[in-house]
Every structure is written in structure tokens, then in C-alpha cells.
Amino acid sequence: MGGAGLSIVRRLRSLLGADAAIGTDAAGLPRVAPRSEEAVALVLGTAASEGWRVRIEGTAGWMPPDAAADVALTTGQLTQIPHLDASDLVATVQAGVVWNDLRRALADHGTWTAIDPPGSGRSLGSVVATGTAGPLRGGFGNVRDHLLGVTLVTGDGRVIRPGGRVVKNVAGFDLTKLAAGSFGAFGLLTSVTLRLRAVPRADLTLVGSGQRDALLTAAQAILETGTTPAALEVLSPRAARANDWMLAVRLVGSDPEVDAARVAVGGAVALPLHELPVQEAARLWPEALAGATLGGSTLRLGTLPTSLDDALDLVEHHLPEGWLSVGVGAGIVRWSGDATAERLKLLRRAAAQQEMPLTLERAPWEVRAQTGHFGAYREGVGRLVSALRHTFDPAGVLVVPVGDA
Fold it and tell me: Where are the domains positioned within the chain?
């Protein structure tokens, strides 16, 4: 560890004492894991005054912890669930709680949250900050639709919540929606208040296999019945761990609701569908999502459900073969594999010509730094992003590839 790093470690220890776990990573980078919201604020406030560059880390289960910085700030010690009310279907959870631990805690109270992010071992803060919803997005909406509130510590150490003075002054933006999917550009999420649901009485998965275009057509036919499956995915052979593409339909709700939906789905498609046994269905969805981290990069491409075949053609033309999952109801194509920044930029430009936004969800820092998470904005949006970043991080403390132009 160099002299500058040693100086930062000493300063953090003198500031925080027992209110943080402080050390260095394998490369000698100072690393701090605050145990309280106040300690997070102190770290970021000090970074702003000292000119330190800070990268935010969760569990490293999704985004590689490789961004160049002076200090790494991790949520690894923020692992409490201070409030869980099953009767009101609401929970407040600290950002460092591992997603699978949260799912188990909710299930113990007969509740769940209808978010199924790709990647394993992730923290709640990572899921919210990157806005990475899985197949359930088609039936229940994106990540921000499940949030009732957040607490955010800004780049200069202010703690803000919905309704606070700073929030009102940021052009009327809702802090909760602003933070979800921002990749940490405006600060570190310390806690999230989630909207919960009662565990559904019935949970059924139907699957069929065939050629890609035929499965997309079948999925469209299901939507045209007016049925809204909890999840409606077309999975590549690599994602399905099979020889052919797979159509997977998940139906949840009361027994009568699921029975009616099953009849509607069966009548909409000529494709043979069969019901998976409960244990096999429980394995299918997480195993399919696990492939989202098989490659070095993961991206999502948004489009209308009727244009998914065009989106897939673009991805397959510009990128090497990889893991693919198509959220038909949500209009999302997600790809994971290995690609250079140049190839990703070419795909982004081609997709933009068809008004298909591309978000780089994860990648090595070298690729993230060259491409950014979002690429070019529509006219005028870049100035707004620049103004928001200056409001929340005036000293430019936070290291994140969210461009201003």
C-alpha cells in the first residue's frame, strides 16, 4: 500500500473508530465498510473535502469491483432489516442485505417481493441501484415500482429521504425513482423501503421448446388473450440449458386465477406446453438467470414486445454468441457474454436508430469507462443529468460511468 493509501486508512480509522470495518483489498486499495448511515455520511463528506475518489461496492456478486478510485466504500456491514410489517406488506431493509437472505426473511413472514434480479449473492443496494429486474418484470413492473422510499447519502455526505429540502429543490424529481437504476451516480443507498406481497397460493410454470421465432409468436399470442403472466420468457439454449430455445410461462395468484390463466394460455398457442413439477420449476428460473454472469458483460435492450425479433437480430449480428433471455411482456432482451467496447458501441448506435435503448448492466471497468452505462442521451437530457450529478455530488467524488452528454 502506497503512502496515500496508508494516509487514507489512518484518517478513516481516526474518524470512524469502531463504527466501520477498515482495511485494504488485495491490490492495497483502502476499503471501508461503515456500520451506520452516519458513518457513510462521514466517509463521503470527508472524501468531498479531501478530494478522494470513491467507488461503491456491494457484495461483488454483480458488478466487478475494479473501478479506479482512492477508496472503496462497501455496504457489507449494513445488513439489518429494521422494520418488517407483514400485515401492512412493507419492509425497510438496509442496502447490504444479501438478496437471498432477504427472500428467506420475507418468506418466514408469509410475504415476498416480486423482484427476481439476475446474478447470485447480490445485495439489495446493487439490485436497486442498477435497476436489474428479472422475468417477473413482465407481470409486476420494474424495480422502482416496488419501492416506497429510499435513504441516500450524497457524494458530499448529506443524508436525504423523500420529502427533504434537497429533493424538493431538484426540479421536482422523486428521489426514489431517481436513485433506482442510477448506478450510484447520485450517492450510496443505505436503506430501501419495499412494497411486499402475500406469498401466492398458486405458482405454476409451463414450458415448451422450438425455434426462436415460433416461440416469440406463441408468446405474443398469449399476451393477445389479455392474460398477464407473472413471467413470460423466451430463453436461448444456453439460458435454458437445453438443445432448443424454450418458452417459459409463470402464472401466480389464487387457485381460480391460475386455473383460468392456464386455460387461456393453452388455448392461445398450438405449441405443446407442459407443466413443470414444483421443484423443477423452482430450479428453472434461478438457474436460467444464473447465466447472466457467465460472460464478462451483461446488457439489456428495450423495445416494444412486437419488435423483439428485430432486437434479437441486432444482438446476434453485432455480438458473439452468448446467453440470451427475452422478457416478452416487458420488451427486454438481456445478453451476457464477452465483447469489446467497440462492438458494444456499434450495437448501441444501431439500436438507437431503431429507438431501442441499451443499458450496459455490468462489464469490466475498462469497458464501462469507454461505453458508459447508458450511452448518448436524447437532446437536452445530458444537461439535466449533469445538473443532477452536480446537485448530489458537487465535488465529483463518486466513480461511475454515467456520462453528462
Answer: 3-74, 83-198, 200-366
Give the pLDDT mean for 213-240.
96
Read off the C-alpha cell for 268. 392461445
What are φ and ψ of residue 274, in 5° steps? -130, 150
pLDDT band of 95, cuts 50, 70, 90: very high
Which distant-in-sequence residues (6+ apart) come within 8 Å of 108 by Cβ? none
Q: What is the CATH class of 200-366?
A: alpha beta
E strand map for 183-268: 188-195, 197-198, 202-210, 231-235, 245-253
Q: C-alpha distances in angstroms, 45 versus 11, 52, 149, 167, 194? A: 13, 10, 23, 18, 27
Region for residue 372 given its phi and psi (left: phi exceeds 0; alpha: psi -120 to 50; beta: otherwise): left
Percent of the chain with pLDDT over 70: 94
Please tell me whether residue 269 adopts helix, strand or coil conformation: coil
How far is residue 259's CA from residue 256's CA, in Å, rounded to a whole number? 5
Those residues whose C-beta lies under 8 Å from the C-beta of residue 104, and which sit 6 or more positions away, are: none
**Of the options 3.30.70.270, 3.30.465.10, 3.40.50.1820, 3.40.50.12780, the CATH number for the domain spanning 83-198:** 3.30.465.10
Rounded to 5°, the CA angle 264-269-271 comes to 130
Total-model pTM: 0.93
